[in-house]
Design a protein that fits this description.
The chain is of the alpha/beta class. The chain contains 15 helices and 18 strands. The chain has 2 domains: about 230 residues, 3-Layer(aba) Sandwich (Rossmann fold); about 170 residues, Four-carbon acid sugar kinase, nucleotide binding domain (Molybdenum Cofactor Biosythetic Enzyme, Chain A, 3-Layer(aba) Sandwich). It has a 15-stranded mixed beta sheet, with helices on both faces. The protein has a 3-stranded antiparallel beta sheet with strand order 6-7-8, with no helix packed on it. The two termini are about 30 Å apart. It binds adenosine-5'-diphosphate.
Length: about 425
C-alpha cells in the first residue's frame, strides 16, 4: 500500500480513484472509515467521507480517524482530496482538516492545489479560474452551502487556517521540480506551512507532484494525483501494471436505476426509452399515496429482466419535479423516491442482478447504503469521472455510480455494453 487518500465527498473520492487507476494504481474506495482491516491487494485506498460541509471539528475528527485506518493499512504517503472549486467557508473545512492531518503526520509544509486543467480549473498567482472566469465570478458564488466569493486561494485558505499560508507562483512551477522545491524551502524558512501552488497545465501538475515526492501529506483536488504514480515508479515501489483497472468477470442480469433529475440524466433516460428498451417509471405521487411502488415495479420487471436490462426511473423534467416538490415538500419527495429506488436495488440483487448502473449522487448514496456496501474496487472508466466498480467478497456486484451531469446521452446502454466488450 502506497497512497492513502481522504476525500471530503463520495463523488470526489471516485473522481480521484479513477485518476489513480488510469495512471496504473490498483485502487479501492471505501465508504466511510471501514470497521475491518484492509482486505485485498491495492496500491492506493480512497476513504470517502461526507465532511465537506459538516462542522469543522467533526470534519477534523472523521479525517483523523480515516488517517489512523490508512496508517494501519500501511500507506506511505497521504492525500487530502477536496473539490476543484475549493468548496469551503471561513470556518473550514479545508484549512482545519489540512492542519490536523499535518500535525498528526509531523509534516513541515503541505501544498494546497485544487487545479485540474482537464476540467478547466487553473490557478495563476493564487487565483483560481473556472473556465475563463475567476472562481468568484463562476456559478460557485451562488452555492447554497459554500459560496465562493473570493478567487484568491491564499486569502481564502488563510481565513480558515491557524498556520501561515504562502504561494508557489507559476514562474517557479514552470521552471520545474527543482525550482518548486527551492520555493518550498524558502516558504518554510518564512514560517509558511500551507503553500497554494499555481498550475495551468498537466505538465505543471506532474512537476508539482514530483516536487512533493517526500511530502507526508498532499492536499489537492484530483488533478495532482496524476503525477504521483510516477513518483512511486521512480522509487521502485510500483511496477508497471496493465491490470490496474481489472474487475472480476461477473455473470448475471443487468438493470439501471435513475433518481437524478439533472439535464444530462433526463437526456439519458429519454435516449433509453426512445431506443425501445424496457423502462418502468416511478411516480412520487403513487409513493405518497402509500402504494408499494417498489414491489409493483419489481413484479412488472420480472418477466422482461431475464431477456435484457430494465430501467427504473423517477427522473423527471424540472417543471414536473417542481410540482411534486410543491405538493410533497422538497426533502420529503427526495427521501421518498430515494427509499423506493433503494428498495428496488435490493430487490434486483435478490433476483439475480449483478450489474447495476445508478444515476444520481444522493440516489447512489441511498443504493450503496441499502446494499450494505463498504468498499468498491475501481475499474475501467466509462466516461470522464465515472468508472465501473466492483464490491468485494465472494459474490461481487458490478456498479456504475453516475452523479448528475456526468455521462454521454447513451451512457446507460454504453456502460452495460462495455462489460461484454
Ligand atoms: P443528482 O446527482 O442529479 O443531483 P441526486 O440523486 O443527487 O441526483 O438527487 C436527485 C434527488 O431528486 C433525489 O433526492 C431523488 O430522490 C429526487 N427525485 C428523483 N425523482 C424525483 C421526482 N420525480 N420528483 C421529485 N424528486 C425527485
Amino acid at each position: 500500500m502506497l497512497l492513502g487518500c481522504i476525500a471530503d465527498d463520495f463523488t470526489g473520492a471516485t473522481d480521484l480513484a479513477n485518476n489513480l487507476v488510469r495512471s496504473g494504481m490498483r485502487t479501492l474506495q471505501t465508504i466511510g472509515v471501514p470497521a475491518a482491516p484492509l482486505d485485498g491487494e491495492f496500491d492506493a485506498v480512497v476513504v470517502a467521507l461526507k465532511s465537506r460541509t459538516i462542522a469543522a471539528n467533526e470534519a477534523v475528527a472523521q479525517s483523523l480517524a480515516a488517517l489512523e485506518w490508512l496508517k494501519r493499512s500501511g500507506c506511505r504517503q497521504f492525500y487530502f482530496k477536496y473539490c476543484s472549486t475549493f468548496d469551503s467557508t471561513p470556518q473550514g473545512n479545508i484549512g482545519p482538516v489540512a492542519e490536523a492531518l499535518m500535525d498528526a503526520l509531523d509534516a513541515k509544509i503541505a501544498i494546497a492545489c485544487p487545479a485540474f486543467p482537464t476540467n478547466a480549473r487553473t490557478i495563476y498567482l493564487g487565483n483560481l479560474f473556472v473556465g475563463e472566469v475567476p472562481l468568484s465570478e463562476s456559478g460557485m458564488r451562488h452555492h447554497p452551502l459554500t459560496p465562493m466569493t473570493d478567487a484568491n486561494l491564499v486569502r481564502v485558505l488563510q481565513a480558515q487556517s491557524r498556520s501561515k499560508v504562502g504561494l508557489v507562483a507559476w514562474s517557479a512551477v514552470a521552471a520545474g521540480e527543482a525550482a518548486i522545491r527551492a520555493r518550498f524551502a524558502a516558504l518554510a524558512a518564512e514560517g509558511v506551512r500551507l503553500a497554494v501552488v499555481d498550475a495551468i497545465t498537466d505538465a505543471d501538475l506532474h512537476a508539482i507532484a514530483a516536487a512533493c515526492a517526500e511530502h507526508p501529506l498532499i492536499t489537492a483536488g484530483s488533478g495532482v494525483a496524476i503525477g504521483l504514480p510516477q513518483n512511486f515508479r521512480s522509487a521502485g515501489l510500483l511496477p508497471q501494471r496493465a491490470d490496474a483497472a481489472a474487475l472480476p468477470q461477473v455473470p448475471g442480469l443487468a438493470a439501471v436505476i435513475s433518481g437524478s433529475c439533472s439535464q444530462a440524466t433526463n437526456g439519458q433516460v429519454a435516449h433509453w426509452v426512445e431506443s425501445g428498451r424496457p423502462a418502468i417509471r416511478i411516480d412520487p405521487f403513487e409513493i405518497a399515496r402509500g402504494n408499494d411502488v417498489a414491489a409493483s415495479a419489481l413484479q412488472q420487471a420480472a418477466s422482461v429482466l431475464a431477456s435484457g436490462p430494465v430501467l427504473f426511473y423517477a427522473t423527471a423534467a424540472p417543471e414536473d419535479v417542481k410540482s411534486v416538490q410543491a405538493k410533497l415538500g422538497v426533502a420529503e419527495a427526495g427521501a421518498m423516491v430515494e427509499e423506493a429506488l433503494a428498495r428496488i436495488a435490493r430487490g434486483l440483487i435478490e433476483r439475480g442482478v449483478t450489474r447495476l448502473v445508478v444515476a444520481g449522487g444522493e440516489t447512489a448514496g441511498a443504493v450503496v447504503q441499502a446494499l450494505d456496501i463498504v468498499a468498491l474496487k475501481i475499474g475501467p472508466q466509462i466516461d470522464p469521472g465515472v468508472p465501473w466498480t466492483a464490491t468485494q467478497g465472494a459474490h461481487p456486484i458490478l456498479l456504475a455510480l453516475k452523479s448528475g451531469n456526468f455521462g454521454s446521452r447513451d451512457f446507460f446502454a454504453k456502460s452495460l455494453a462495455q462489460l461484454d466488450a
